[in-house]
């Protein structure tokens, strides 16, 4: 790899999507066949942070990232700079539209925090805007620098922050007038939009190692999301008591897997029959790649009997097998609800514990 000045690496780490960041990555010219484990680890951490952390947890992640902005350890900086495009590749293997949005959102929020914490805030704002080929003008008002952005350019990017919506802005002669902090927020939204537009990236022709790393990351994401799902509804329904077939469908749907129709129907009827609250069922199905709230609510209302007047029964084990969804032959029940009832019954659990601890019991 080429030798790159520390200051240039630090800038590329803060703004890897910028033209200077892209040029630095090209200058480093990483060998895709020989990327270090550290690069893949940093890339995976970035994807995991985007896809699994809550708002407060992401803020902690961003704060920790900012604390390292003055680090001058070359190997660390190089790994972090290269990790950004590698993270986009690993994310693209996941084929999650919602995941792309969350990743771009995290990078946008990170960009804002870096911009407003720069020692030379205005200079860095102008440099980054210029690198992104944006027109921004300076205006002096009562000895305070204001940023003027052409109206057509301003509204050409989707804005997540309601405070940036056009109705809340001051418009003069075709320009939006912003103070530096609001301008930094707008520029972060531009970064979000451009990163989102760049996803997914083409994964064809990459070394096999990338698919292997993406597969490991996918399993890690599913494990984390399944744990989060179980923690979220613990006390309302007992997810630990789900039969293997329903546990698998629940975890996959929560991870954004596109389940076939019968799998969704079987899971929905099961959840309705164990009395999971309807908002929780709809929130779960919102994870599906092709989620449509109106259609989902219609089907859940119909299955629960709210609109049809008759609640659908959960499928028997025979039906689950017929649908190709049975994954265990050791449940010793004829119906998934039997399994759930058995596992949620305290006396049944105590009996199973006694049987296990009995003299001569098989390990």
Automatic annotation (TrEMBL):
Any matching Pfam family: DNA_primase_lrg
The keyword 4Fe-4S appears for this protein: yes
Region (Disordered): 342-363
Domain DNA primase large subunit C-terminal, chain residue ranges per copy: 238-332
Record-linked InterPro entries: DNA_primase_C, DNA_primase_lsu_euk/arc
Biased composition (Basic and acidic residues): 349-363
Gene Ontology CC annotations of this record: primosome complex
Biological process per Gene Ontology, one example term: DNA replication, synthesis of primer
Keyword Iron-sulfur among record annotations: yes
GO molecular function, one term: metal ion binding
UniProt xrefs under PANTHER family: DNA PRIMASE LARGE SUBUNIT
Name of the protein: DNA primase large subunit C-terminal domain-containing protein
Gene source species: Candidatus Iainarchaeum sp
